[in-house]
Design brief:
single chain, ARM-type_fold, mainly alpha, globular, ARM-like
Amino acid sequence: MPSPLAELWFRGVAANSVASSDVLLRLLHAAARAAWKVLCQERPLPADVVDAVIAHPEQSVRRAFARNRYATPAQRSRLLDDPNALVRADLASGPHPRLGRVAALPDDVIETLLTRQDTSDHGQLVAADEISQELAFSGQIPMSFYREMWAHKNPEPRKQGASWWLWLTAEQRNALLADPDPAVRDAARKHSLILDPAAMEADLPEADCHHRSLLLVNYAVSRTVAEACLADGRDLWSLDDTVRTRALVHPLPRTWAERQALDRVVGRTAEDIGPVGEMQVEPDTDWYSACAISTQSLLRRVAATCPRLPRQLVHRLADDPDPQVRYLIAYNHPLAPPRTVLDAFIATPRQRPYLLTLPHLPRTGLQHLLDYEDPDVRRLAAADLTLDRPPIHLLTDTDVRRAAAGNPLLPLDLIATLLDDPETAEGATTNPSLSAERLHELLDRTDLPHTATE
C-alpha cells in the first residue's frame, strides 16, 4: 500500500544531493511523476541518469531536462533532434529560471536551431521560426557567434547579423549591403538607416505615434528635426534623465560601447540591474578601471558591472561608500569578497535566487543569522553545516523548517521522526546524512518499482 507521504518523499529524494544513480533512476517511473520536475530540471544529474532522461518516452521528462540550468550545454544539446517540437523549443528557450549569464550552446547547435526549416508535418505545435526566436532571446548565443554572423555561410544568420549594425565595421556593413541574398541586402538597408539622419527625417511621421518615438530615441537625428522639436517644445522627453546624466558624468567623446555600459546603469538601482550580460563590443578594461577610481559614484557603479576588473580594484569597490556599487560588484565579479556577497543577499531580496547560485556566497559561519527577521536569510543559515548545535528550534518555524530538516547535523533518530511528519517529510528526505539504503527503503514503502520500466 503506497504511503500517503509518497509524493513528499519522491520530491525530497529527487532533491537529495547525495542520492545515488540507482536511487534516482527509480524516480523515472510513471508512479513517481511528482518528482520529475525536481529531478530533471532542478539539480545536476549523473551521466547514466542523463542518458535515461534523454531516452525517456515522456516528453515532460525531456522538456524539464531541456530547461535544466545545472546540465551542461553539451548534455542539453542532445535534445536537438528530439522528435517533439516542444522539447526542441525548450532547448532553444534555455535554462529556467534564467539566473545571471547563461552558458552558450555549441556553435553547430545554434546554427541548426537558427536555420532549420519546418517539415511537412503540420501537426507540430511550434514552428521552426518560433524556435529560432526563442533561441535569439535565450542568452545562449555567445557574442563571439553574433560578431561573426555577418559573414556566415548561411544567409539567415547574415540577415540576423545586420541587426547589430552599430557594432559592425564599415567593411562588414558594406559586405551586407552587397550580399548576394536579397533578403540580407534588404535587412542591411533597413538597419543602415539608424545612422542616416536624412533618411530618419524623411521617414519621421508628423503625428505623434510609436514609430515617431522609436525614430527619435534610437536613430540619428538631423539638425532640422532637432531644431524643430526645440522650437515647438515637442518631444523633449527624449532629453530625459538618462541623456542629461550621461552628458554630466561622462563628457564626449565616448564610444558606442561606453555609452551602452553607462546606459545600463543610469537611473536604476543595483537590485534592478542585477548581473549584467555580455555586450557585443565591450569597452576596454582600462576604461572600466578608470571608472572604478572616479569620484562619480555612477561611474564606479559602471565599473562594478565589469567582471574583468583586477583584484585590487574589486576589493576597493567592495568597500565603496555607495552600497549600490558594493551590490553590483557582488553580482558581477567572481572575485567579490564573500562578505560583500552575503551583504548583497541580505539587502537585495529580488536578487537572492541568483546570488544562491554563486560559489562565493557564504554557506558557513552563519550562526548569527539563525534568528534573522527575513525567512530567506534564516533558511540560508539553517543549512549551515558548521553551526555549534543542530538547528532544532527552527523545525517549528513554518518558513524555515524544510531547510532545517535537511541539515545533516540533526540526529538520525530525529530525522527518522521528521520523515513521517507531513510538515517536515520532504525537507528531511533531502538530508544528505541518509544513506542510499535508507532512501531505497523509503521508496519501497511507496511500492515504487526498482526500475522505470517495471
